[in-house]
Design goal:
about 325 residues, mainly beta, nine-stranded antiparallel β-sheet, six-stranded antiparallel β-sheet, 1 helix, 27 strands, globular
């Protein structure tokens, strides 16, 4: 236990992860650069609850048009917390205090957080139980295991909203970070950032099949999709592992993301809440960090969860440096 509300996970390499019971959220990740210097690379508001940064997204990540769910022919009306639409499960669980306990696992130091959502919370049917287990391995991997069950048919599409800046300097931007995404197709959005269809990434600013800078060099600056989102806020249909590789060329820090989810939303932070005070000093600014959110494919129906079923998903972040530092 770290303080009264958070858990500190650490390994013998000196890597540390702080997990807060508020929102079952990631509140800090300190890893070494190529020279062995440690910095926090996860955006963390000074006041927990100021944003979704690091929070568990439940029951459903992403937006649902007009908050309307159709389950077995019956309509469920969800809360509207993003204009006329429903965002990130309504926010109740992302800003609630989860029950937590420290654990020692074969993977490394861990903590488990759980919460029960009453039937009808934010409009979702079913009394649902959610559990998130965070584990930090000795090989600098942060593993997130998510589990959900319900007593009525409902929707579940959990994720985590951690924002990354691998330089550890949130006064700058992540524009020059290099990104690779294992995806041949991207989902286009309407003006409300809701997916309306998909297209091949080839020949577009969404082609990250080969590692390249996220933003810079002028590519995509006249793209209507990127202009509306102030960058990227788009889902990619995954077709390989790792799902994504993110590298900061200055510090050498590299993050590889593995998941059993079929899609990944890249959000380059165009609408980050500018001016929010950050833990450790400084304030958030546009594109000072980015999110990589694994989830189900838009419109696939895969979010449906029935009584007796247990939905289990995994997100794994592997940290190292490029090139590897000498030991």
């Amino acid at each position: 236990m770290y303080g009264n509300q958070a858990y500190l996970l650490r390994n013998r390499r000196g890597t540390t992860v702080v997990i807060d019971a508020l929102g079952a959220s990631i509140r800090g990740v300190e890893v070494a650069d190529r020279w062995g210097r440690f910095s926090n690379i996860a955006l963390c508001p000074e006041e927990p609850g100021d944003s979704y940064a690091g929070a568990t997204l439940a029951p459903c990540a992403g937006r649902i048009r007009k908050g309307r769910l159709l389950i077995d022919g019956r309509a469920a009306q969800l809360s509207l917390n993003d204009g006329p639409n429903h965002l990130h499960g309504g926010g109740s669980l992302s800003f609630a205090r989860w029950r937590g306990e420290a654990r020692s696992t074969a993977e490394g130091e861990a903590c488990a957080l759980s919460i029960t959502a009453r039937d009808g919370l934010d409009g979702y049917p079913g009394e649902r139980r959610f559990e998130v287990i965070y584990a930090l391995t000795e090989y600098d991997q942060l593993i997130i295991r998510m589990r959900a069950s319900t007593d009525r048919a409902t929707w579940v599409n959990m994720s985590n909203h951690v924002y990354w800046n691998l330089s550890g300097d949130f006064s700058g931007t992540v524009d020059e970070h290099r990104l690779r995404v294992g995806a041949d197709h991207v989902y286009l959005n309407d003006a409300a950032h809701l997916p309306i269809g998909r297209r091949p990434v080839a020949g577009t600013p969404f082609d990250f099949r080969e590692e390249r800078p996220i933003w810079g060099g002028g590519e995509g600056e006249d793209d209507e999709q990127l202009a509306a989102a102030r960058g990227y806020n788009h889902g990619f249909a995954l077709n390989g592992a790792p799902a994504a590789t993110l590298t900061d060329p200055v510090s050498g820090r590299r993050l590889r993301l593995y998941t059993d989810y079929p899609a990944l939303v890249l959000y380059s932070g165009g609408f980050l809440h500018e001016g929010i005070a950050l833990s450790g000093g400084g304030r958030a600014r546009q594109r000072c960090a980015l999110a990589l959110e694994p989830q189900t494919l838009p419109g696939s129906g895969a979010a449906l969860l029935r009584p007796g079923e247990v939905r289990e998903r995994i997100i794994r972040y592997a940290f190292d440096v490029d090139p590897p530092r000498e030991r």
